[in-house]
Design a protein that fits this description.
Elements lengths: L1 E3 L5 E6 L15 E6 L5 E5 L6 E4 L5 E5 L15 E6 L10 E4 L7 E6 L17 E6 L2 E6 L8 E4 L10 E7 L4 E6 L4 E9 L10 E9 L6 E7 L2 E8 L4 E6 L5 E5 L6 E5 L6 E5 L5 E8 L3 H4 L4 E10 L1 E4 L5 E5 L6 E6 L4 E6 L6 E5 L4 E5 L5 E6 L4 E6 L6 E4 L5 E4 L6 E5 L10 E4 L20
């Protein structure tokens, strides 16, 4: 499993290891590797188990490895609740990675995520920001302090007495006041978990305790988001069963419903740093429209804040373009037709293709869309300011993309012998491209080494 850090400067590789089955052979133990994308510098940490899933913290400092649900990795017996926390800024050694066995009541983790840096207790000044690992499992949320990995975990139950356990599906973080919002299946409640300060019990005790408070959304939500308005925190709950969205005041629990008239099931709030509007759309059903919802004074204006925007075709997904005031709409599972939304003007511009895209990425702070299709030896680069597409021919079709902070575009051809095409940037042409073949991990992204030009042996 390979995951780039959020800034694209490193690739984190989780390798399950190799059991040759030969008594005289050399087995390879499980490892986690960090590869510096620009220099090729390699660091490794030996892992205690052959985990098959990994999550990274947003700041790139921590990684946590764990077993997926139903994983067959491991020997005759394995602990499905085992996780390993790695500090990527510290060398391998005793306590790094640090192994935890998450306490559970007959369940196994369904997901693991990291919080952004937050303060405990919440205060205007934060002497020591924390990063927490949050483990999702049926009936519970478990919190581990990655900043103090030697401390015990703390859990909250998502289960009423005598009732079936609830499965958490989504967690959101409000780092300024150490609050976590959680959505679970099978309930109309949204759970607000406040990390309250406490006096640690013993040297491995935590200095926080999670306290849970439910807020009702009226109907079962399929997606949630939160925003602040005039000092009041609000939760936006998308409830497709009622063809509406709900707005909940966290302090008072007051619920206001805004009719939409369509079974929208997802919301993207923007801009991410200070949400002022939401983009409402559906993934589970095919709609040829989406909705803008202005969040200001929503409890009073309600439907007056809703604007419908028609699409050229039905949509399967929508995502915000990072670093820009645009969104991308996917119209089919093969990603043959896409549209670009101007979030300020609230207008839609279609881009039609003849082949499905196997992968795409954004470059230059969202200015360019870079795409590849497995059937053709091209890298397509679209200037989203003008919507003009340009084509760069390459020697072989590519299947995946990665854009580095330097602007370099890496196209992986997924060949057994290893083949990578490197463009220096979105304005580069075929003559600027380089090809790397037969590389090992330590050579994977050494773009500064160059290589043969396109078409050369």
């Amino acid at each position: 499993m390979i995951v780039p850090t959020a800034d694209g400067r490193d690739l984190i590789v989780l390798a399950a290891g190799l059991d040759t089955g030969d008594p005289d052979g050399r087995d390879e133990p499980p490892h986690l590797l960090r590869i510096a994308a620009e220099t090729g510098e390699l660091k490794t940490w030996e892992m205690p188990s052959p985990f098959d899933r990994m999550t990274l913290s947003a700041d790139g400092r921590f990684a946590v490895a764990y077993f997926s649900t139903g994983s067959q990795q491991g020997g005759l017996l394995r602990n499905p609740n085992e996780i390993a926390l790695v500090d990527l800024q510290a060398p391998a050694g005793k306590g790094n990675p640090r192994v935890h066995s998450v306490r559970a009541s007959g369940t196994v983790p369904s997901g693991v995520t990291f919080s952004p840096p937050l303060c405990i207790p919440a205060a205007q000044e934060c002497a020591e920001p924390r990063v927490l690992v949050v483990v999702l499992a049926s009936g519970s949320l478990t919190f581990l302090d990655a900043t103090h990995a030697d401390r015990r975990e703390a859990s909250v139950l998502l289960q009423a007495p005598g009732a079936e356990p609830l499965d958490p599906r989504e967690v959101l973080f409000a780092p300024d006041d150490a609050v976590v919002f959680a959505r679970a299946t099978g309930t109309s409640d949204i759970f607000v978990v406040t990390l309250q300060p406490v006096t640690p019990e013993g040297p491995d005790g935590n200095d926080f305790r999670p306290a849970i408070n439910p807020l009702t959304a009226g109907q079962r939500p399929s997606d949630i988001a939160f925003y602040d308005e005039q000092g009041a925190r609000k939760v936006l709950a998308v409830t497709p069963g009622s063809l509406s969205v709900g707005v909940i005041d966290v302090a008072t629990s007051a619920l206001v419903t805004v009719p939409v008239g369509d079974p929208v099931d997802h919301a993207l709030v923007f801009p991410p740093e200070a949400p002022a509007a939401a983009l409402l759309f559906a993934r589970s059903v095919r709609l040829d429209r989406l909705f803008f919802l202005d969040l200001a004074d929503l409890e009073t204006k309600r439907g007056a804040n809703l604007i419908r925007v028609d699409l050229p075709e039905t949509a399967t997904d929508v995502e915000l373009v990072p670093g820009s005031k645009r969104a991308l709409v996917l119209h089919d599972a093969q990603r043959t037709v896409i549209s670009v939304i101007d979030l300020d003007a609230r207008t839609v511009y279609p881009l039609q293709g003849s082949l499905g895209l196997t992968d795409y990425a954004f470059a230059a702070d969202g200015r360019y869309l870079v795409a590849v299709a497995a059937a053709v030896p091209h890298i397509e680069i679209v200037d989203l300011d003008t919507l003009h597409p340009a084509e760069v021919r390459i020697d072989d079709p590519a299947e995946s993309l990665l854009v580095l902070p330097s602007g370099a575009i890496l196209a992986d051809h997924r060949r057994a012998w290893g083949m990578l095409t490197v463009l220096p940037g979105p304005l580069a042409g075929r003559d600027d491209a380089r090809v790397l073949q037969g590389f090992l991990f330590e050579q994977l992204l050494e773009v500064r080494l160059g290589g043969p030009k396109m078409g050369e042996p």
